[in-house]
Amino acid sequence: MNRAEELKENLAEVEERIAKACEAAGRDRDEVMLLAVTKTWPASDVEILYGLGLRHFAENRDQEAAVKVGQLRHLEEARWHMVGRLQRNKAKSVVEWADQVDSVDSVRLAEALAKAAHAKGKTLDVLLQVSIDGDTSRGGVAVADVAELAGVITRSGDLILRGAMTVAPRTMNPSQAFQALVSVVSGLRDHHPTAIGVSAGMSGDLEDAISHGSTCVRVGTALLGGRRLTSP
């Protein structure tokens, strides 16, 4: 089986899982976006997935993503997400290629991204990365600090808050984590009407996330296969 056939089969299986999960939850399939996590995989895989209809792709390393996005400028409808932990000194570089940063977890990072976006003359969509269990050493803002960070983002004028994201902690039942994130986003919407996105669920737990209201599932392994050890 060649790579194109492999990815087509994988995508069909993932789409079937999403459709069944939506049906079980009484939701429309259109309510859930499939974000293809293409980190460590070559630009050629993105081209194949784009040809199969996907438009949203996620990277977690600025250096790798910058090269890959540069190779794929001809995919005019492709939308790129930064999903990895991001240092402030990478803000200017990330703004060059990313359409959305899904991992904003501090005031200082938000300010750096706003400054970089302003200098480039663009607005940047962002998600708050929330640490549901409060262990911010793994990335994410504590739930208690969400309101402050959301306010900084909204007041910047250069960032648009689109919702929140989390990775279910290994020490917590995924259902609890997903439900907690939905509660966070519900609270955000009262003061930030653009913050409607709930990014939760990956290859192993997307059904659970969809049942709790996720509007975006981030799928890498189920779509592209086991993670490559080195970048192409």
TrEMBL record:
<comment type="function">
    <text>Pyridoxal 5'-phosphate (PLP)-binding protein, which is involved in PLP homeostasis.</text>
</comment>
<dbReference type="InterPro" id="IPR001608">
    <property type="entry name" value="Ala_racemase_N"/>
</dbReference>
<comment type="similarity">
    <text>Belongs to the pyridoxal phosphate-binding protein YggS/PROSC family.</text>
</comment>
<feature type="modified residue" description="N6-(pyridoxal phosphate)lysine">
    <location>
        <position position="39"/>
    </location>
</feature>
<dbReference type="InterPro" id="IPR029066">
    <property type="entry name" value="PLP-binding_barrel"/>
</dbReference>
<protein>
    <recommendedName>
        <fullName>Pyridoxal phosphate homeostasis protein</fullName>
    </recommendedName>
</protein>
<dbReference type="Pfam" id="PF01168">
    <property type="entry name" value="Ala_racemase_N"/>
</dbReference>
<feature type="domain" description="Alanine racemase N-terminal">
    <location>
        <begin position="11"/>
        <end position="227"/>
    </location>
</feature>
<keyword id="KW-0663">Pyridoxal phosphate</keyword>
<dbReference type="InterPro" id="IPR011078">
    <property type="entry name" value="PyrdxlP_homeostasis"/>
</dbReference>
